[in-house]
Design a protein that fits this description.
Layout (H helix, E strand, L loop, with lengths): L5 H14 L3 E4 L21 H11 L5 H12 L6 H14 L1 E6 L5 E6 L12 E5 L3 E2 L3 E2 L3 E5 L2 E6 L2
Parallel strand pairs: 1-4
Antiparallel strand pairs: 2-3, 4-7, 5-6, 7-8
Length: about 160
């Protein structure tokens, strides 16, 4: 009989998420400076390639400049207050990112760039990553971090 420990619970959680259709990854394998890196720095929490791919997939015909602007608006903090900043990001995720662009006729237009497809959930990419290390002023390593289209949305501490 296997001993019940944190690793066993973590493996069971990942297996359950796989059964629900999530992809899984091991944090150290996608960490900065690795062969399969998905991050350029330890303090980076968004998985930018996945996020950009989702924006293109969910916003047909979007131009690369609008993709870049949507990502910049999402990641650029506008407040030092954590509650206010979480509310801002929540609204962008829920409602889309407003991005201005010029039409071929020269008019200024604001488009809402969707980050998540709420109407067709299968169009989204779910990823659960175990042992995802984040280093800012402190070293943090949640047991499982769940990403939706490259955006961290849930944290499991087992």
């Amino acid at each position: 009989m296997n001993a019940l420990n944190e690793s066993t619970v973590e493996d069971a959680a990942l297996e359950y998420l796989r059964e629900l259709g999530y992809s899984t990854a091991f944090g150290p394998e996608i960490a900065p400076d690795t062969e399969h890196s998905e991050r350029s720095a330890w303090n980076q929490v968004y998985l930018y390639e996945r996020l950009r791919e989702a924006i293109v997939r969910l916003n047909k015909g979007i131009d690369p400049t609008s993709v870049d602007e949507a990502v910049k608006r999402l990641e650029r903090a506008e407040s030092q207050n954590a509650v206010a900043e979480n509310k801002r990001v929540h609204e962008l995720v829920r409602d889309g990112v407003p991005v201005e662009r010029r039409t071929t006729g020269g008019q200024l237009r604001t488009d809402r760039i969707r980050l998540i497809d709420f109407e067709h959930p299968k169009n989204n990419e779910w990823l659960a990553v175990n042992q995802f290390t984040i280093i800012e002023s402190k070293n943090r390593r949640p047991d499982v971090l769940v990403f939706l289209n490259g955006i961290p949305v849930a944290l499991f501490e087992l």
